[in-house]
Amino acid sequence: MAFNLEEKYVAAAEEALQARLPDSYRSALQTENGGEVFAGNDWWELHPISDSSNRKRLSRSSNDIVRETASMREWTNWPAGALAIAQNGTGDALVLLKKASSFEPQVYVWKHEDGDLTEVAGDFSELERA
Known about the structure:
Radius of gyration: 13 Å
Number of helices: 4
Largest sheet: 8 strands, antiparallel
CATH architecture: 3-Layer(aba) Sandwich
Helix content: 25-40%
Low-confidence stretches: none
Distance between the termini: 11 Å
Structural class: alpha+beta
CATH superfamily: SMI1/KNR4-like
Number of strands: 8
Mean pLDDT: 93
Strand content: 25-35%
């Protein structure tokens, strides 16, 4: 079950990532921090934004976007400046790409086999939520 999220935790994630998140993504995760989306003919488990407001929320957000992105950077062919926002359980990821000091609104599928990036949505708000 996903929880709502206070603005201060979004701001902390942006500070750690050194870039602003797209408005639609910020808004969606503030309403429901985590959950699933449908993109590219697959369901994806969203990585939450770390929420330390209480032990339960901290535990449920331990696989946050900052931590998951740091882990994905170790993969071969991981795109420079990519932010891991979701995974499908097969090694692939949904990503946002960084441009200057913000992440672009487009959502891409990153394939771990070859590093291929395919745009699946022009904006996070276009994705179907479970």
